[in-house]
């Protein structure tokens, strides 16, 4: 039986994230940044990172009391079950010059090195930064319906930041990585399963059925936390990714277009010079 939800931010009237303990050493972290769980700076800082701290502290306390099992399920909004996460919102980031290093990359790094097995219960669409967040989890379980996944930066002119590319490179083989980044292909659940973007597609439809299946899966993995070595193993496996995520990257929307314009002018000048 699940415990009462702990809400984040703790003093807020409306929760942006909730954590429940589902029994058998399993915690469920649900995102509620409606309508589509955009990974905004304050959502990350005030809700998601504190929620992860809460789960880890609860696990340590349970371990001291004798129950060392632990696993975490991360899922999207559950009112409509339409979005796992719609990614970043680039137009608000001008006020956060260290957004990548101090907010989004800190979240990705925290998830990738979490001391418990982490499962993304992809209960709705997951785009760009939301897809990358799901890939930061150890496992991805996806509903079969109403779920599209895409790294769509190529369609709106934003180059992929190096930290996000590092996460994608750690998870996806090169032919899939090339397709994901250079075409912005919008994957169905079955396509994502075929190309290894997700690990399982549940048979039952619906957001809650996906979450319930992910919780069952988490319960089978939770005993693997007992030795306390998962974080150390992840830090070793993902060392290059974690190092990249520790770097700050400036927001670059429009930069490549300006560079293309400069290169165009240089090529025109070279052509004119060659004809002289």
UniProtKB/TrEMBL annotation:
Gene Ontology biological process: fatty acid beta-oxidation
InterPro entries: ClpP/crotonase-like_dom_sf, Enoyl-CoA_hydra/iso
GO molecular function: delta(3)-delta(2)-enoyl-CoA isomerase activity
One Gene Ontology cellular component: peroxisome
A matching Pfam family: ECH_1
Name of this protein: ClpP/crotonase
Organism: Rhodotorula diobovata
């Amino acid at each position: 039986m699940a415990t009462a939800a702990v809400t984040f931010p703790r003093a807020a009237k409306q929760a942006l994230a909730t954590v429940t303990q589902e029994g058998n050493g399993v915690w469920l972290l649900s995102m509620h940044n409606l309508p589509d769980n955009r990974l905004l700076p304050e959502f990350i800082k005030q809700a998601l990172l504190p929620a992860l701290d809460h789960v880890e502290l609860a696990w340590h306390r349970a371990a001291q009391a004798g129950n060392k099992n632990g696993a975490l399920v991360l899922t999207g909004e559950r009112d409509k079950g339409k979005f796992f996460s719609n990614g970043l919102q680039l137009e608000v980031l001008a006020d956060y010059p260290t957004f990548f290093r101090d907010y989004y990359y800190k979240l990705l790094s925290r998830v990738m090195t979490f001391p418990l097995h982490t499962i993304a219960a992809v209960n709705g669409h997951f785009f760009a930064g939301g897809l990358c967040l799901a890939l930061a989890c150890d496992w991805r379980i996806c509903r079969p319906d109403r779920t599209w996944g895409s790294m769509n930066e190529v369609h709106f002119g934003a180059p992929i930041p190096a930290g996000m590319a590092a996460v994608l490179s750690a998870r996806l083989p090169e032919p899939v990585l090339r397709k994901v980044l250079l075409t912005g292909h919008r994957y169905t659940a079955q396509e994502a399963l075929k190309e290894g973007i997700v690990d399982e597609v549940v048979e039952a439809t619906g957001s809650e059925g996906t979450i319930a299946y992910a919780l069952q899966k988490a319960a089978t993995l939770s005993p693997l936390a007992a030795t306390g070595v998962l974080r150390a193993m992840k830090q070793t496996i993902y060392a290059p990714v974690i190092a990249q995520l520790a770097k700050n990257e400036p927001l670059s929307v429009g930069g490549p277009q300006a560079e293309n314009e400069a290169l165009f002018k240089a090529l025109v000048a070279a052509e004119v010079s060659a004809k002289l």
